[in-house]
């Protein structure tokens, strides 16, 4: 199945080579490996370590700190190809893309030296905590507060749906200073090591087949040194969106990989499954919907590439619009494609053998996380079209 993005006019020889190398690695693991890891309650450590050794995990991080010196464009290709083989690494979205980017752009020299080499070579991981139980999509209602006490910071609050806290060495927590409890959000970001006193976690039971677990966090008078703060305490939204735009781009890559995996399985089945004279793929009632899914995935991939290129070029404002659009388009395409793939296989689409049933739930994640499609439509309505807000 051809991929229009393999055209050298649209994608460089280096990017095509990166895709091919990651795809070859991922193919050796595949969906069966991923499903086994989930069933046994393990993590994808073997794939993570091999991808790290090849330099894929930190491809976006600065060379002087052990990274590849490239950008989110390259990291998104890595995640997409892993997903297309059926074994995506969710922590790629969180550890190098969000946390690594924020530290590389706004961290102190000491923070960069402490964290970036480990994030780049896969020996360390970092989680990201922004969502709160009572705030939902309204990040302006963040109530996790930080107050100064002598030379330290004291954090109090709660977070929900934080991925991989159990396997992360630390979590990058988004809070607000105590005197900024009213008015516009001025987020501040803190590195909280996993075993810090007062930093509690409890798993959230999810109907989701994934190696990475979700957690609710409690911060009860968590004391941190002054150098736990990343960036400025009153820098506003800039340093937060430095992490959120890559998050949206990488979520698009996650969804695209999933969609491509599902489509490939459905096409292979439709090409070979025969119950009448011709394979079922000859019937337009099945062929046309699969063709439509392919078109939708290709369109989303182009928008993801645009968003990544804008972000890597330093155009944060334009990248924000494109990243939201890419995440929206990729999520919709993935949900549609997974649904059509299951439908194409009929009863077989719901068996473990074909590896599609678990994607029905997983595809929905891309629609609602890290930001819902409705909030993206709000963003486009206000920012792109200039329509008045309803809230």
UniProtKB/TrEMBL annotation:
Entry's Gene Ontology molecular function annotations: acyl-CoA dehydrogenase activity; flavin adenine dinucleotide binding
Domain Acyl-CoA oxidase/dehydrogenase middle stretches: 127-222
Keywords: FAD, Flavoprotein, Oxidoreductase
Top-level division of the source organism's lineage: Bacteria
UniProt-listed SUPFAM superfamilies: Acyl-CoA dehydrogenase C-terminal domain-like, Acyl-CoA dehydrogenase NM domain-like
Domain Acyl-CoA dehydrogenase/oxidase C-terminal: from-to ranges: 236-380
InterPro entries, sorted: Acyl-CoA_dehydrogenase (IPR050741), Acyl-CoA_Oxase/DH_mid-dom (IPR006091), Acyl-CoA_Oxase/DH_mid-dom_sf (IPR046373), AcylCo_DH-like_C (IPR036250), AcylCo_DH/oxidase_C (IPR009075), AcylCoA_DH/ox_N (IPR013786), AcylCoA_DH/ox_N_sf (IPR037069), AcylCoA_DH/oxidase_NM_dom_sf (IPR009100)
Named cofactor requirement(s): FAD
Family: Belongs to the acyl-CoA dehydrogenase family.
Protein name: Acyl-CoA dehydrogenase
Gene source species: Streptomyces yunnanensis
């Amino acid at each position: 199945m051809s991929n229009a993005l393999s055209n050298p006019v649209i994608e460089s020889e280096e990017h095509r080579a990166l895709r091919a190398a990651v795809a070859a690695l991922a193919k050796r693991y595949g969906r069966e490996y991923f499903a086994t890891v989930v069933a046994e309650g393990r993590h994808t450590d073997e794939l993570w370590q091999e991808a790290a050794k090849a330099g894929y995990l930190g491809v976006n991080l600065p060379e002087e700190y052990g990274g590849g010196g490239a950008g989110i464009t390259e990291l998104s290709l890595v995640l997409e190809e892993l997903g297309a083989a059926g074994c995506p690494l969710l922590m790629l979205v969180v550890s190098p893309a969000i946390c690594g980017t924020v530290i590389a752009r706004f961290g102190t020299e000491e923070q960069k030296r402490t964290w970036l080499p480990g994030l780049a070579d896969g020996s360390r991981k970092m989680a990201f905590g922004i969502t709160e139980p009572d705030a939902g999509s309204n990040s302006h209602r963040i109530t996790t507060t930080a107050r100064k006490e002598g030379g330290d910071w004291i954090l109090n609050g709660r977070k929900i749906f934080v991925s991989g806290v159990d396997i992360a060495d630390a979590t990058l927590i988004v809070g607000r200073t105590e005197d900024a409890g009213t008015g516009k959000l001025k987020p501040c970001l803190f590195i909280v090591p996993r075993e810090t006193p007062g930093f509690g976690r409890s798993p959230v039971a999810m109907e989701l087949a994934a190696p990475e677990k979700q957690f609710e966090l409690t911060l009860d008078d968590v004391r941190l040194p002054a150098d736990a703060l990343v960036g400025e305490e009153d820098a506003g939204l800039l340093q937060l969106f430095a992490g959120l735009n890559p998050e949206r781009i990488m979520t698009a890559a996650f969804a695209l990989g999933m969609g491509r995996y599902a489509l490939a399985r459905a096409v292979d089945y439709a090409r070979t499954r025969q119950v009448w004279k011709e394979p079922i793929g000859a019937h337009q009632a099945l062929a046309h919907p699969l063709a439509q899914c392919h078109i939708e995935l290709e369109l989303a991939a182009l928008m993801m590439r645009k968003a990544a290129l804008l972000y890597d070029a330093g155009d944060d404002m334009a990248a924000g619009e494109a990243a939201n659009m890419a995440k929206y388009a990729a999520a919709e395409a993935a949900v549609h494609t997974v649904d059509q793939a299951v439908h194409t296989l009929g009863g077989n689409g719901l068996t473990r053998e074909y590896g599609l049933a678990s994607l029905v739930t997983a595809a929905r994640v891309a629609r609602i996380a890290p930001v819902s499609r409705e909030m993206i439509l709000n963003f486009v309505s206000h920012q792109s079209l200039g329509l008045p807000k309803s809230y």
